[in-house]
Amino acid sequence: RQRGADGHRELWEAFDSPLFSRVNAQCFRGFGKTANFRAFMSKRIAYRISRTILYVGINQEKAVASVQWLRSQVERNKLWTSTYGLVQGRKWQEDQIEIRSTVTGDTSWIVAAGISSGLRGLNFDDYRPDLILVDDVVNEENSLTQDSRTKVEDLILGAVQGSLAPPTEEPNAKMIMGQTP
Questions:
Q1: CA gyration radius for the chain?
Q2: pLDDT at 90
Q3: What integer pLDDT is reported at residue 149 of this predicted model?
């Protein structure tokens, strides 16, 4: 509904670049981080790049909102689904959906999780996440002290990053973190 912000083109260059498997986007409030994350997620599904996507929010509720946005696109955006041959899969819950391609027969799993959820060992159909989107998980509470900042950093660089498929399994695997400083 609106023209993209001036920095969106640079953001997408980093998103799409095969040179970067990790992207940390520090963006001002109102930049459109979540909208860009959702669009990028839908692109990776449409072009059959991602088989398993983990969407991480500050809490489960925030992450679920983005999975529900995608679910709504499959249900209502007939131009998108018919262009790319996308249909609802077997799993169609609030926090977890499966989208099937009628073109290739492949499926994409999309899972919502809060930053403090158990994120180790996640896989669907024997695939670990090849796209992890970490959306605004640092807030005033969990960054108040050095101790709490270290805990969040350890979660992101440990459990979350450790869930990403290795390049030997998936050369296009990518983890993107967007944060309002």
A1: 16
A2: 95
A3: 86
**Which ranges of the chain have pLDDT less than 50?**
none
Asked whether the beta carbons of 25 and 11 are under 8 A apart, the reply is yes
Please write the tens of the pLDDT for every residue from 120-172: 667 777 789 999 999 999 888 888 899 988 888 888 888 889 899 999 999 99
pTM above 0.90, yes or no: yes
Type of residue found at 71: R
Nearest Cα residue to 61 out of 97, 90, 94: 94
Structure token pair of residue 17: 């670049």
CA distance 36 to 122: 24
Instruction: Tell me the DSSP string of the chain.
Output: --PPPTTHHHHHHHHH-TT-SEEEEE--TTS-HHHHHHHHHHHHHHTT--SEEEEEESSHHHHHHHHHHHHHHHHH-HHHHHHHTEEEEEEE-SSEEEEEETTT--EEEEEEEETTS--TT--BTTB--SEEEEES---TTTTSSHHHHHHHHHIIIIIIHHTSPPTTT-TT-EEEEEE--
In the chain, the amino acid numbered 28 is F
